[in-house]
Amino acid sequence: MKTMMPALGLFLLSLSARADEAAIPPPPADVSPVAMIVVVLLLVAMVGGFIAFTVLKDRKRNGK
């Protein structure tokens, strides 16, 4: 066990040295405007639905 711990440390250090050799991926292509609009609409709908759910639940709890 005493020899395994330093060996593991050296192994992990060698992994970081090999990570520098990895190829850098190319930047992603431009995003379609239609996809961005769909994502924004989904986000707005989900936030609106959450607000409506909490307001209706609060009104139901208060007995209004």
> N-to-C terminal Cα separation, in Å?
68 Å
Helix content: over 70%
Radius of gyration: 26 Å
Could you describe the largest sheet, including whether it forms a barrel? none
What is the H-and-E element order? HH
Shape: elongated
**Poorly predicted runs:** none
The overall strand count is 0
Compute the number of helices: 2
Strand content: under 5%
Rounded average pLDDT: 83
Coarse structural class: mainly alpha
Looking at how many chains there are and whether they match, the oligomeric state comes to: single chain
Provide a descriptive summary of the structure in words.
- 72% of the residues lie in helices and 0% in strands.
- It has helices at 4-19, 33-62.
- The protein is elongated and about 70 Å long.
- The model has no long low-confidence stretch (mean pLDDT 83).
Overview features:
64 residues, elongated, mainly alpha, 2 helices, 0% strand
Helix-strand blueprint:
Elements: H1 4-19, H2 33-62
Q: Gist?
A:
With 64 residues, the protein is mainly α. It has helices at residues 4-19, 33-62.
